[in-house]
Amino acid sequence: MLKRIDIFMPPRSQYGVLHHFTVVMAEALQKCGVNTRILEADYYNPGPFLDAIMSDPPDCTLSFNGLLPDDKGRFFCELIKIPHVACLVDSQNLFIPLIRSPLTIIACSDRFSCDFFRGLKCKNVLFLPHGTDEKISAEKSEKSRIYPVTVICSLIDYERLKNEWPTKYDPVICKAMEEAAEITLSDGTTSYVQALVEAVDRQMELNYHIDPAKVDFIGVMDDLEMYIKGKSRIDAIKAVKDAEVHIFGSCGEGATWEDYLGKDRKNIIIHEPIPYEQVLDILRETKILLNASPWAKNGAHERIFYGLSCGALVFTNENIYLKENFIDGENIVLYQANDPAGLNQKINEYLSDDKKREAVAARGRECVEKNHTWECRARGLIADLEPILKHMKEEQVQNSKKE
């Protein structure tokens, strides 16, 4: 029986997302009967952090986007001999080193990411979708929903990324990447990893020689995913021809939103990026939240759940997981990325019919409150963790006997 989990507060997080997830997951586990502490390490004084863990060891530790090995290849969980659950929020490609740790359990928000790690012979993998806070307030009235369409994301300079491909990869690989991107952006079922595998195979069938040993496939996957993320966001925004679109997100370095969207698009208003807690206030003032996340084909981004919780109607690209858990036009609106005209038409339709939009948004809110809260995720996590931890403990006992 799982009794204790210590959760590590991350040292940093863009917009404060990981900090928010840490707090709400701790609260959710507590509600499920698991004694939970949030611990934060001080880089200059780690003593109290270590003392708290070692003086009263938990069944396991947990953190969002962690913990990677140090510069000497050592895993913290191996040093303290306590299993660690690494709940991935960012790209799977950044966390491949985790497969080297027998005491690390990788939790992915997309089933295809789970398959990816299992394909790398990692057996301690589980599916943990993102969720939303329980009974989150949607207190704003419809009259105060001042943003017709809201987009919350960072700009990715995907054209610059693609222009760099020929300097990094063989022309055959570049061609395969282009094909994989097109496949991923055009359907709701094929992951970008599978699309890349299929595209590379096709290139090889055309008698192009590729030496796998000379290809940085991790770099290829990372560049491909970033390209897909950046292009899908811009494509979705450009598809909205009539309604007013409010963008909240950083530009990073290099290109600006205006570079990609044009300076004459009068229906697009660009705002400064905001911290995560303020995002919820914006969502309470939003009629339609427009989301694009085609890199996740069998999972879902937290924006979808939080958007619905805050009373906004969520428009998002269709995928396997969403079609299993929601009904298009009933409690969410799913669009096809290769049909921009259809997306624009749907947005105009729902903005012109307040009662219809409010009804679908209300049913979406009801659905996430029932099935997609962090407490729901915590219950699933506990059920999946217990047999894994039991097996790990048995292996530790057997190894100690051998020694």
Walk me through what this model shows.
The protein is an alpha/beta fold. It folds into 2 domains: 4-131 and 374-402, Glycogen Phosphorylase B (Rossmann fold); 142-371, 3-Layer(aba) Sandwich (Rossmann fold). It has 15 helices and 12 strands. It has helices at 17-31, 47-55, 76-80, 111-119, 158-168, 171-186, 192-205, 217-239, 257-261, 276-284, 302-309, 320-325, 340-351, 354-371, 374-402, and strands at residues 4-8, 35-39, 60-64, 84-87, 104-108, 125-127, 147-152, 245-248, 268-271, 286-291, 313-317, 333-335. The strands form 2 sheets. The chain has a 6-stranded parallel β-sheet, with helices on both faces. Strands 9-8-7-10-11-12 form a 6-stranded parallel β-sheet, sandwiched between helices. The longest helix has 29 residues, at 374-402. It starts with a strand and ends with a helix. The mean pLDDT is 93.
How would you summarize this macromolecular structure in one to three sentences?
By secondary structure, the protein is α/β, with parallel strands linked by helices. The chain contains 15 helices and 12 strands. It has helices spanning 17-31, 47-55, 76-80, 111-119, 158-168, 171-186, 192-205, 217-239, 257-261, 276-284, 302-309, 320-325, 340-351, 354-371, 374-402; strands spanning 4-8, 35-39, 60-64, 84-87, 104-108, 125-127, 147-152, 245-248, 268-271, 286-291, 313-317, 333-335.
Shape: globular
Structural class: alpha/beta
Q: Radius of gyration, rounded? A: 22 Å
Count up the domains.
2
Overall number of strands: 12
- Low-pLDDT segments, ≥5 res: none
Biggest beta sheet attributes: 6 strands, parallel
